Sequence to fold (190 residues):
Amino acid sequence: MLDTLSSSRRNLLGLTGVGLLSATAIGILAGSPAMAAEGGASQGDVDILNVALGLEHEAIEAYQIGAESGLLAKPVLDVAVTFQGHHKGHRDALIGAIKNLGGTPVEAKSRADYATAINAASIKSQTDILRLAQKLEKGAANAYIGVMPSFSNKDFAQVCGKLAADEATHWALLSNALGDSYPSAPFIFG
Fold:
């Protein structure tokens, strides 16, 4: 189940090919309406933004399920709530962008649907919660890194770099909380 969730975040940026995440979508995700306006918008952009919104809904609920589990120590709970806040900010920006493009934002599913999707019944410890979050964050970082080379405009690649850095930071903090040793490989992401 964890592989399914992390691959769904990676697939957000590669739905049948890296080129589907347009410069417009990157501009909107980065909060840059001017950048978004440069490329124009299509129904495909709205669809991709709705996939992203669906994943943000899922992340918000996954962090909520973890927070309410009673399994997280106070400092770890604080980090989880902070990361959930980041996802809420992403959600709000995506909703605004989708509406600005004339689309209808996808609604969040029920708590039960998300609990099933993340296999919440199998979560028995703080470590289980952190491993799930860690896997999702690394998948997202790799997705952004994967699309960077597809842009001819370096500004769009820079936006992806910033988003990948955010996700990599989340991953690193989660890895630290888990007590993982630092990877010895020269390339951790990508």
Summary: Residues 1-22 have pLDDT under 50 and may be disordered. The chain has one domain: 2-141+148-178. Residues 74-100 form the longest helix (27 residues). The radius of gyration is 16 Å.
